[in-house]
Amino acid sequence: MKCQQCDKTATFHITELAGGKPVELHLCEEHARAYLTQGEEESTGAPSLAGVLAKQLAVGQTAEELARLDQQSCPVCGITFYEFRNQGRLGCPHDYECFSKQLEPLLLNIHGETTHVGKCPKHGAEGTGRQTELIRLRREMKDAIAGEDYERASQLRDEIKQIEQELGS
Amino acid sequence: MDLTDLTQRSGEWLKGSGPDSDIVMSSRIRLARNLADHSFISKATDADRAEIERELRQRVTEINDGEMFYVDVSQLPGLDRQFLVERQLISREHAESHGARGVAIDRGEQVSLMINEEDHLRIQVLHSGFDLAEAWKQIDAIDDALEEKVRYAFNSKLGYLTACPTNVGTGLRVSVMLHLPALGITRQIEKVFRSLHKISLAVRGLYGEGSQAMGDFYQVSNQITLGKSEPELIKQVGDVVPVLIDYERRAREFLMRESHENLHDRVSRAYGILSTAQTISSEETMHLLSSVRMGINLGLIQEISMPTINALFIRTQPAHLQKIRGTELSTADRNIERASFLRHHLSKDGGGSKN
Question: Is-contact B170 B230, C-beta < 8 A?
Answer without folding.
Answer: yes
